[in-house]
Design a protein that fits this description.
The complex is a heterodimer of chains A (about 260) and B (about 425).
Chain A: H1 2-6, H2 10-33, H3 40-60, H4 68-90, H5 97-100, H6 109-135, H7 147-171, H8 175-188, H9 201-207, H10 211-223, H11 231-262
Helix pairs in contact in A: 2-6, 3-4, 4-6, 4-7, 4-8, 4-10, 6-7, 7-10, 7-11
Chain B: E1 6-18, H1 26-32, H2 35-38, E2 40-53, E3 58-62, H3 69-76, E4 84-89, E5 93-96, H4 109-119, H5 124-138, H6 153-164, E6 171-175, H7 183-198, E7 202-206, H8 210-216, E8 219-224, E9 227-233, H9 234-252, E10 259-261, E11 267-269, E12 274-275, E13 281-288, E14 297-299, E15 304-316, E16 320-327, E17 332-337, E18 348-358, E19 366-375, E20 382-395
Parallel strand pairs in B: 3-7, 3-8, 5-6, 6-7, 14-20
Antiparallel strand pairs in B: 1-2, 1-4, 8-9, 10-11, 12-20, 13-15, 15-18, 16-17, 16-19, 19-20
Classes of the chains: A mainly alpha (about 260), B alpha/beta (about 425).
Chain lengths: ~260, ~425
C-alpha cells in the first residue's frame, strides 16, 4: 500500500512526511491553543472516566480486579485512541473540502493524520499511566519493548476502518451517527473496564472477533503483568488488520475520484 | 510519451444530476429504496477535449459560466478522474486555485505559511528557505506572528498568493487570479505570472477577462457547453469569442421599432445605434467639464466627467460599465471599463449613476463619440450599448495630425550651456 504513496522518490517521501507533520501539528495546535487548560484537556476525558468507573466498579459493583486503576487506565487509553481516531477519521474527508479540491493534494494522508494526532494524545497520557504503574509498584519490564508492535497493529486496524468510514461519510452523511452507536456498543463489548476472561468460554471465540479485545489484552499483558502478549492472537489480529487496510485502501482510492463531485 | 508539457486527448467528464437530489443519509436511502438511481440523469461537463501545450507556452481557457473551464483545469491538476480520454502532464504542478486552502484563523501568519506552503507542494525546508521572501512579497512583516483572524480578507489573499508565488512549478494552473487584493497587489500578481512565464513555466489560465487572456496567452481554448468550440492563436480565438458576444447581443436586442430620445436629444434606435437586452437601461449620459457645466465641447487637455444614469428594473448581478471614446471615423482612441479598472460592481437594482472621471483628455482637435455600454458580468452580451450617440468635440490650438495632443514644450540649448 505504501509504495503507491511513495513512488520510490526521496523528495516525495520527504514531502509526505512534512505534510503529515504540518497537518498533525495543525490539529494539535488548534485543539490546545485557545484553552486555558491546554494539554490537560487531552487527559481530562480519560481521567474523568477513570474516576467514575473506578467508583462504580470498586465500590458499587466490585469486580475485584487487582490494580484496578491501572487496569482501567490501560484499557481506557487504548479505547480512547481507537474511538477518537475513528470519529475524527470518518469526517476527515468531508471536513477538509478545500484540500480535496487542491490539485496535487494526496487525499490518502488525511485519515493517517487523524490516527496520528490521536496517537500523540495517547503518548501525552502515557507518563500518567507509568505513574500509576509506579504507584502500583509495578516495574517497567523488558516486555515494554513489544509495545510498539501493539501500537502498530492498532494503528493499522484504525486506519483500515477509517478509510472505509471516511469514504462512506462522503456518500452518506449519517455514517458518523451510526459510528457513534457502534462505538457506544463497542465500549461494552471490549474489555475496557472488565477482564476479557470474564466472558464465558463458549462465547470467547465469538468475542474475539472484536480485534480490540486482543489489543487491550496485549497492552495489559505488557504493562501490568510484565509478560509478552499472546502472540498467536496478536498475529491473527495483525494480519487481519493488514488485510483490512489493503482492502479498504483500495476502496478508498477508487471512491476518492468521486470525492470532488460529492463535496 | 510526447514532449508536450500538457497533453489532453479525447477527454470527457460526466456528472450526474439527481432529480430529487440523491439520498445523503443511509436513513433516506432505506426509506426511498433504489428508486433514486433511476431518477438521475447524466450530463457531460466536458466532451471530447483534445489539446497539447508545449513547454513554456501559456494557454487561456475562456467560455461562459458552466462551460467546463474549471472542471478542465482541475482534471489537468489531477483532481477527479476523467470518464474518457487521457491526460498527461510533465513536471511539478502548481496551482493558483483555492488560494489559502488550509488557512486557519486561530493560527499565526507564520504557522499558516508553513501549513499552506506544504499543502501547496513545498517541503518544510523549501518553505523555511523562502519564508522571508514570502512575507516580504505579501508585505505583512509586522503581522506575521499575529493570528490570521485579525487579517483583513485582502491581507489573507496576499499571504496566500505570496506562498503560491514561491512554488517552482513546471506547470501552473490559474483560475480567475484577479480576484486578489487591491489594484497595486493585483499588478504585482500579474508581474509574478509574467515572471513564471519568462522562467519557462507552462501555464493554463482560466479567466473571464478577455483583456488579460489576450495579454498573457499564446493560445486559447474556447469551451462552450463542455465542448471545444475553438482552439488556436489567442488573438484569433478571443476575437471570435467577442464577435459571438456581439452577435448574442444583437440577438437579444428586442425587435421593436420604438425610438427613444437620448439625453442629448439624439434619437436612439434599437439595432441601429442602440444594442442590448435592455435588462438595464442607460437612461442618460451626461458630459461635464471640471467646473461642473454640462458640455458637448471640450478644450484638449482639460478634464472630463462622464455620468451614466442607469435604471435596473430587475436586480442585475455585477454588471460591467464600459466607456469608449471613438473618433468619428471609427478609430478607438481610448477604452476603459469597471472591470479593467478593477472596480467591482455589486448587484444593481433600481436607478443609479456611475461616474467616470478623466483628469485630462489629451486628444487632438476633432469630432469624437463617447460610446457607453453596460455588459453582462462575463461580457457575454450587452444589456444596453449606445453607439455613436454622444458627441464630443475637442478643440485644440495644436496641430491636427495624429491622435494625441499631450502637454509638451520644446527646449533649445546651444553647446556652451550643455
Amino acid at each position: 500500500m505504501l509504495h503507491t504513496l511513495i513512488q520510490k522518490d526521496d523528495h516525495r517521501l520527504i514531502y509526505l512526511f512534512d505534510l503529515l507533520r504540518e497537518l498533525v501539528a495543525r490539529d494539535l495546535k488548534l485543539r490546545y491553543r485557545k484553552s486555558a487548560l491546554g494539554i490537560l484537556w487531552t487527559l481530562l476525558n480519560p481521567l474523568s472516566q477513570l474516576v467514575v468507573l473506578n467508583l462504580v466498579f470498586r465500590l458499587i459493583l466490585p469486580l475485584n480486579i487487582p490494580n484496578y486503576t491501572l487496569f482501567l487506565f490501560t484499557g481506557l487509553l487504548a479505547w480512547h485512541w481507537f474511538q477518537s481516531s475513528l470519529y475524527a477519521g470518518s469526517g476527515s474527508i468531508v471536513d477538509n473540502r478545500e484540500l480535496i479540491h487542491r490539485p496535487g493534494f494526496p487525499v490518502v494522508v488525511l485519515p493517517v493524520v487523524s490516527v496520528l494526532s490521536n496517537f500523540i494524545h495517547y503518548l501525552i497520557a502515557l507518563p500518567i499511566l507509568i505513574l500509576f504503574m509506579l504507584l502500583a509498584k509495578i516495574q517497567i519490564s523488558s516486555a515494554f519493548l513489544f509495545l510498539p508492535i501493539v501500537f502498530a497493529i492498532q494503528f493499522v486496524l484504525s486506519l483500515g476502518l477509517i478509510y472505509l468510514l471516511a469514504a462512506f461519510q462522503v456518500m452518506f452523511r449519517d455514517t458518523q451517527y451510526l459510528l457513534g452507536v457502534f462505538l457506544f456498543l463497542g465500549f461494552y463489548l471490549t474489555p475496557v473496564f472488565y477482564d476479557s476472561s470474564a466472558i464465558p468460554a463458549r462465547m470467547q471465540f465469538l468475542y474475539r472477533f472484536n480485534p480490540m479485545v486482543t489489543l487491550i489484552d496485549s497492552y495489559r499483558a505488557i504493562m501490568i503483568n510484565a509478560q509478552s502478549p499472546e502472540w498467536l492472537h496478536l498475529m491473527i489480529v495483525g494480519l487481519a488488520a493488514i488485510g483490512l487496510l489493503r482492502f479498504t485502501f483500495y476502496i478508498f482510492q477508487r471512491a476518492s475520484y468521486r470525492f470532488v463531485e460529492e463535496l | 510519451m510526447s514532449e508536450d508539457a500538457i497533453l489532453v486527448e479525447g477527454l470527457s467528464k460526466k456528472f450526474y444530476r439527481y432529480h430529487s437530489g440523491r439520498p445523503w443519509t443511509f436513513q433516506e436511502m432505506f426509506l426511498r429504496g433504489a428508486d433514486w438511481r433511476r431518477k438521475r440523469h447524466e450530463f457531460w461537463a466536458l466532451q471530447n477535449i483534445s489539446f497539447r501545450l508545449a513547454p513554456g507556452r501559456t494557454a487561456g481557457v475562456i467560455g461562459r459560466n458552466g462551460a467546463g473551464k474549471s472542471t478542465l483545469l482541475r482534471l489537468v491538476g489531477g483532481v477527479g478522474k476523467a470518464d474518457r480520454g487521457r491526460i498527461e502532464t510533465r513536471g511539478r504542478i502548481g496551482a493558483l486555485i483555492d488560494l489559502g486552502a488550509g488557512f486557519h484563523p486561530d493560527l499565526s501568519g507564520r504557522e499558516n505559511v508553513f501549513i499552506n506552503g506544504v499543502i501547496s507542494g513545498l517541503t518544510r525546508k523549501e518553505v523555511a528557505k523562502n519564508f522571508d521572501s514570502i512575507v516580504a512579497f505579501a508585505e505583512l512583516e509586522e503581522f506575521i506572528d499575529s493570528p490570521l483572524r485579525i487579517y483583513s480578507t485582502g491581507m489573507q489573499m496576499r499571504l496566500a498568493f505570496a506562498i503560491a508565488a514561491h512554488i517552482q512549478p513546471a506547470i501552473l494552473l490559474i483560475d480567475e487570479i484577479l480576484a486578489v487584493g487591491d489594484y497595486a497587489f493585483q499588478n504585482k500578481c500579474l508581474e509574478r505570472i509574467t515572471q513564471f512565464k519568462a522562467q519557462g513555466c507552462t501555464i493554463l489560465l482560466v479567466s473571464h477577462n478577455t483583456d488579460l487572456v489576450r495579454r498573457f496567452c499564446d493560445e486559447v481554448l474556447w469551451l462552450e457547453a463542455g465542448a471545444l468550440k475553438a482552439y488556436g492563436e489567442a488573438e484569433q480565438v478571443v476575437g471570435q469569442y467577442l464577435a459571438e458576444m456581439g452577435a448574442r447581443t444583437r440577438h437579444l436586442t428586442p425587435e421593436t421599432s420604438s425610438v427613444q430620445t437620448a439625453s442629448t436629444g439624439a434619437e436612439l434606435k434599437l439595432n441601429e445605434n442602440r444594442f442590448g437586452s435592455l435588462e438595464i437601461e442607460i437612461e442618460a449620459v451626461n458630459l461635464y467639464n471640471m467646473t461642473g457645466e454640462a458640455i458637448q465641447e471640450l478644450e484638449s487637455g482639460k478634464g472630463l466627467r462622464i455620468e451614466i444614469v442607469y435604471n435596473a428594473p430587475q436586480p442585475i448581478a455585477a454588471p460591467i460599465f464600459g466607456v469608449t471614446i471613438t473618433r468619428s471615423d471609427g478609430l478607438v482612441c481610448w477604452e476603459s471599463s469597471t472591470q479593467s479598472a478593477l472596480l467591482p460592481v455589486s448587484q444593481l437594482h433600481g436607478k443609479g449613476k456611475v461616474i467616470l472621471h478623466l483628469d485630462r483628455l489629451d486628444l487632438i482637435e476633432g469630432q469624437y463619440f463617447v460610446d457607453v455600454g453596460i455588459y453582462q458580468h462575463e461580457w457575454e452580451y450587452a444589456y444596453d450599448y449606445h453607439w455613436h450617440v454622444y458627441l464630443l468635440s475637442i478643440h485644440s490650438a495644436q496641430g491636427q495630425k495624429g491622435i494625441l495632443s499631450p502637454p509638451h514644450h520644446w527646449e533649445f540649448m546651444v553647446a556652451e550651456n550643455l
